[in-house]
């Protein structure tokens, strides 16, 4: 407690001196900036049977007040109401409770800069990594997977309360430290939800009880943190990272509880084993080609196994995730990004049940193509991601049309194909078309 | 290049004439752009590179595969592809062929490692080869023959030559020849690969590769030389090539020095101080369409460090752009982090990222004084600017700078293919804080003249900006 008080006093001192020091600044820094958007998101599921799967009205409001060039406060809120639960009775009540309405604080942040030190304190997203559309080193925030990975990543990330301090050691070299007692975990879809993940194919003869995942969202004892060293030299953008955290995805440990004379009960208990993540990122432009690479080794990673001889139903497999990607613009108008991802398990993958793990080495390729017509008012794009091992894939074409400077219409589709126990194949019957209108102000 | 023979690195070589169509050409201009070219010279100059790219990876794969197994073969071939890529970049070539080769090599490696099959390792290369073939043919249909692009790998054509009808005609025919060859070869290799006999496949690969590509390359050069010599557009220029070379040797150093001074002086009209904030409005216009207006705040320090904040319209607000030298990042609120992008990517309308993020022609381009011209009655120096490296927005710029006061007046911007992309005019000169500045730049599309973007430079604040504004990790804070 004393440490917390001391840290708060230190921060307040920093704020006060920064405000005083930078009191005489230009007008542009003193503005209250407010932005927002309202979107109507419609999705229609194509199979079993075809039906509306989303009819969501989403509102976003964010503001920033700049006290001085060095100090600012920010806040952002998001709320939604999904009328699909009125339009169809396809989804069970637990899903309705979980997804029908939501109101959340997306950002509540104080930023203070003094000299070469910058402090960000509050609820925020901390994003590491070079690549787009992947989480290899984007590890700090937990994710909301209730709509799989289809929303924008800024929507997928769950903001956390954290302290983020950056110190510029010299030009092009900085070190960033992050600490958070906010230990919330990934938000997974409920049973019966549109994008409910494929369930682990256990073959228990005994009765099974699955305990809820109800760890505290805040814990000083289980607090998480890490550091990132960023270096920019001769156009080479390199970062080294270390992060200590609990696995954001629960792992189901098995316990056998005897209750004679009845048969033993199998208890499945979700736990979040501690992970030590060591990684690196790289970005470099070889005009006109941009190359990105990321790697992260998760030490202590555990997976559920269906091996009947395994006593706790969980095995440790330290895991290396890495990717390399290149961006290139064809004919000066067509932007393409090709990316190769691999997940490499340090050990056998036999009996492992995770949908994203197809073998000891799980490979996927993604291709993103985007262009613009009519002064970039009509913007078609295509995302194709394929799991090389078992041929499952996701295909997401989309066309954005800017009706005006503030209003955009989007028409798209999300198509999945592949065997049922694969990452994309598990949503084989969830193909959908989408229509979204967004008004920004 | 890891893809075996017949890739775009085998694209044709063609001589380069000189001069600008439809304009009076001074001897100096002719000299500056004229170099002697022969079929033998180009084959000897580029042949070893072709052989290396074509044979190196496939032979190393085969040796590694036979001696140590599939993984060793893949690692060896991929390593060679990486080395070739690095070599090409270091020697300041466009590296387009090598870049594509690197992507193919990585795809092959992924396919081979994922499946554990040598057959699967070769499959992506064949598919990509077939795609090359198709691309060659489609590029002709689009009027931008791909052979011309790859010819830049071995020779820097002057922009005026690349924009000419002769260039398009010659390289269209050459592209068709290469496209047909690549498609036929891909079909044959696919057939052999379907028999799953890797030894036979390697033999077919080599047999249909080097001999055919060498022959096709020789034909491309011979045909290109002949076609340019016989053309009314460039034939005369080739005939006086030897005289022009002598003139170039005698005259160009002194003029290059003058030219660099002129460009440096003209740059000052586009930069009010060492550290400043500039509000810029870009109005993009197109016939029969409502103009769209984008607003930016541009923070500049020491010329090479630029931070651009998107302030309007609402759909763009929150984005920002950071340029450090020739390195560029964009911050997108949806991604939540800065993302590396190339300078040549379009920002809005006719404006590339580099148009705003870089204003240092003197630092980015080598200049040669071509001669004199008049633009709307203003006497101008005409300069030919060639990119010092490939890391800039345009490969070449033809630049008109007024003799009186050395103000920028007009520019033509060229792509690496020699295509004229757009023209720019500088006007609305105003005195800002004791500096005369060009406060309007109008960019017009080279083909669709109705497509224009007008950059209006508004309020300027000259002040010392903190260094951290130019740190990519600070972009989110500045949003």
Quickly describe the structure.
The complex is a heterodimer of chains A (441) and B (479). Chain A is mainly beta. Chain A has four helices and 24 strands.
What would your notes on this structure say?
The complex is a heterodimer of chains A (441) and B (479). In chain A, the strands form three sheets. Chain A has an 18-stranded antiparallel beta barrel. A three-stranded mixed sheet of chain A has the order 9-13-12, with no helix packed on it. A two-stranded antiparallel ribbon of chain A has the order 16-17. Chain A has helices at residues 2-21, 84-87, 93-99, 153-156; strands spanning 32-45, 51-66, 71-82, 101-114, 117-124, 146-149, 160-170, 173-180, 208-210, 224-233, 236-246, 251-259, 262-271, 274-286, 289-299, 302-304, 314-316, 319-330, 334-345, 361-370, 378-387, 393-402, 407-417, 432-440. Residues 1-10 and 19-25 of chain A have low confidence and may be disordered. By secondary structure, chain A is mainly beta. Chain B is of the alpha+beta class and 479 residues long. Helix content of chain B is 46%, strand content 25%. Chain B is built from 15 helices and 15 strands. Chain B has helices at residues 27-33, 39-68, 70-90, 96-115, 118-141, 146-151, 159-162, 165-194, 198-207, 210-230, 235-239, 241-267, 353-357, 361-364, 475-478, and strands at residues 275-285, 292-301, 305-312, 320-324, 327-332, 337-341, 346-348, 351-352, 365-375, 378-387, 396-402, 408-414, 420-432, 435-445, 452-462. Chain B is globular, with a radius of gyration of 25 Å.
**Extended strand count of chain A:** 24
Q: Which protein chains make the most extensive interface, counting residues with beta carbons within 8 Å of the other chain's beta carbons?
A: A-B, 68 and 65 residues
Strand share of the residues of chain B? 25-35%
Number of helices of chain B: 15
How does the overall form of chain B come out from the CA principal axes? Answer: globular
Q: What does the main sheet of chain B amount to?
A: 13 strands, antiparallel
State the separation between the terminal residues of chain A, measured CA to CA. Answer: 43 Å
C-alpha-based Rg of chain A, rounded: 24 Å
Query: How many individual β-strands of chain B?
Result: 15
Quaternary state reads heterodimer
Terminal Cα separation of chain B, in Å?
42 Å
Helix content of chain B: 40-55%
3D shape of chain A: globular
Low-confidence stretches of chain B: 1-37, 240-255
Order of helices and strands of chain A: HEEEHHEEEHEEEEEEEEEEEEEEEEEE
**Helical residue percent of chain A?**
under 10%
Low-confidence stretches of chain A: 1-10, 19-25
Number of helices of chain A: 4
- Overall pLDDT level of chain B: 75
Structural class of chain A: mainly beta
């Amino acid at each position: 407690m004393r440490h917390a008080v001391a840290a708060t006093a230190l921060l307040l001192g920093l704020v006060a001196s920064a405000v005083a020091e930078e009191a005489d600044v230009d007008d542009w820094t003193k503005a209250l900036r407010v932005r927002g958007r309202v979107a109507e998101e419609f999705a229609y599921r194509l199979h079993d049977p075809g039906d509306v799967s989303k009819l969501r009205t989403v509102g976003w409001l964010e503001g920033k007040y700049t006290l001085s060039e060095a100090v600012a406060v920010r806040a952002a809120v998001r709320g939604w109401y999904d009328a699909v639960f009125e339009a169809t009775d396809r989804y069970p009540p637990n899903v309705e409770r979980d997804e029908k309405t939501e109101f959340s604080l997306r950002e509540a942040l104080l930023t203070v800069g003094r000299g070469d030190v910058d402090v960000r304190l509050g609820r925020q997203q901390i994003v590491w990594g070079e690549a787009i559309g992947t989480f290899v080193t984007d590890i700090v925030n937990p994710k909301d997977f209730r709509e799989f990975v289809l929303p924008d990543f800024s929507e997928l990330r769950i903001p956390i309360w954290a302290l983020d301090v950056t110190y510029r050691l010299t030009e092009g070299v900085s070190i960033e430290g992050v600490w958070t007692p906010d230990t919330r975990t990934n938000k997974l879809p409920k049973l019966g939800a549109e994008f409910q993940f494929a369930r682990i194919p256990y073959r228990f003869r005994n009765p099974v009880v699955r305990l809820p995942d109800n760890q505290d969202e805040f814990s000083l004892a289980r607090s998480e943190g890490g550091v990132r060293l960023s270096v920019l030299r001769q156009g080479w953008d390199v970062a080294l990272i270390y992060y200590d955290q609990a696995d954001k995805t629960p792992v189901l440990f098995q316990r056998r509880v005897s209750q004679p004379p009845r048969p033993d009960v199998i208890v499945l208990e979700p736990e979040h084993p501690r992970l030590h993540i060591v990684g690196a990122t790289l970005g470099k432009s070889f005009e006109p080609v941009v190359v990105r690479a990321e790697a992260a080794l998760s030490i202590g990673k555990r997976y559920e196994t269906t091996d009947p001889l395994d006593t706790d139903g969980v095995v440790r497999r330290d895991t290396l995730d890495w990717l390399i990607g290149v961006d290139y613009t064809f004919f000066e108008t067509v932007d393409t990004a090709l990316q190769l991802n691999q997940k490499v398990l340090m050990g056998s993958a036999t009996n492992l049940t995770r949908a994203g793990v197809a073998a000891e080495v799980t490979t996927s390729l993604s291709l993103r193509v985007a262009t613009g017509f009519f002064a970039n008012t009509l913007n078609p794009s295509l995302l194709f991601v394929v799991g090389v091992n078992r041929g499952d894939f996701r295909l997401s074409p989309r066309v954005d049309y800017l009706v005006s400077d503030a209003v955009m219409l989007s028409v798209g589709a999300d198509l999945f194909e592949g065997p049922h126990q694969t990452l994309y194949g598990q949503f084989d019957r969830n193909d959908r078309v989408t229509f979204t209108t967004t008004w920004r102000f | 290049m890891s893809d075996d023979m017949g890739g775009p690195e085998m694209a044709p070589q063609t001589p380069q004439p000189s001069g600008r169509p439809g304009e009076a050409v001074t001897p100096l201009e002719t000299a500056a752009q004229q170099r002697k070219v022969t079929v033998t010279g180009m084959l000897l100059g580029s042949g070893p590179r072709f052989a290396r790219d074509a044979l190196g990876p496939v032979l190393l794969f085969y040796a590694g595969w036979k001696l140590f197994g599939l993984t060793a073969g893949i690692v060896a071939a991929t390593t060679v592809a990486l080395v070739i890529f690095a070599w090409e970049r270091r020697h300041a070539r466009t590296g387009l062929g090598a870049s594509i080769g690197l992507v193919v090599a990585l795809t092959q490696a992924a396919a081979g490692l994922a499946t554990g099959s040598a057959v699967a390792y070769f499959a992506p290369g064949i598919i990509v080869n077939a795609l090359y073939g198709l691309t060659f043919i489609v590029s002709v249909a689009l009027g931008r023959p791909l052979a011309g692009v790859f010819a830049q790998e071995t020779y820097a054509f002057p922009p005026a030559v690349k924009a000419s009808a002769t260039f398009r005609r010659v390289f269209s025919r050459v592209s068709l020849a290469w496209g047909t060859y690549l498609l036929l070869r891909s079909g044959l290799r696919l057939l052999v690969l379907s028999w799953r006999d890797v030894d036979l496949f390697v033999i077919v690969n080599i047999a249909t590769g080097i001999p055919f590509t060498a022959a096709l390359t020789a034909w491309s050069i011979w045909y290109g030389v002949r076609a340019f010599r016989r053309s009314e557009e460039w034939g005369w220029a080739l005939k006086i090539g030897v005289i022009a070379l002598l003139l170039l040797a005698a005259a160009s150093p002194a003029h290059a020095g003058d030219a660099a001074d002129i460009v440096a002086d003209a740059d000052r009209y586009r930069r009010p101080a060492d550290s400043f904030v500039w509000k810029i409005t870009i109005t993009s216009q197109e016939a029969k369409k409502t103009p769209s207006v984008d607003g930016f705040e541009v923070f500049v320090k020491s010329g090479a460090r630029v931070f651009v904040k998107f302030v309007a319209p609402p759909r763009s607000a929150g984005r920002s752009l950071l340029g450090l030298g020739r390195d560029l990042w964009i911050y997108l609120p949806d991604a939540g982090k800065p993302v590396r992008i190339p300078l040549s990517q379009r920002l809005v309308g006719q404006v590339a990222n580099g148009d705003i993020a870089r204003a240092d022609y003197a630092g980015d381009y080598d200049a040669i004084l071509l001669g004199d011209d008049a633009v709307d009655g203003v006497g101008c120096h005409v300069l030919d600017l060639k990119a010092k490296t490939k890391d800039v927005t345009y490969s070449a710029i033809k630049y008109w700078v007024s003799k009186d006061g050395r103000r920028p007046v007009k520019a033509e911007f060229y792509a690496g293919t020699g295509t004229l992309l757009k023209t720019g005019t500088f006007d609305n000169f105003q005195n800002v804080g004791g500096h005369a500045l060009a406060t309007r730049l109008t960019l017009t599309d080279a083909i669709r003249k109705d497509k224009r973007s007008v950059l209006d430079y508004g309020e300027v604040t000259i002040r010392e900006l903190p260094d951290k504004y130019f740190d990519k990790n600070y972009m989110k804070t500045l949003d």
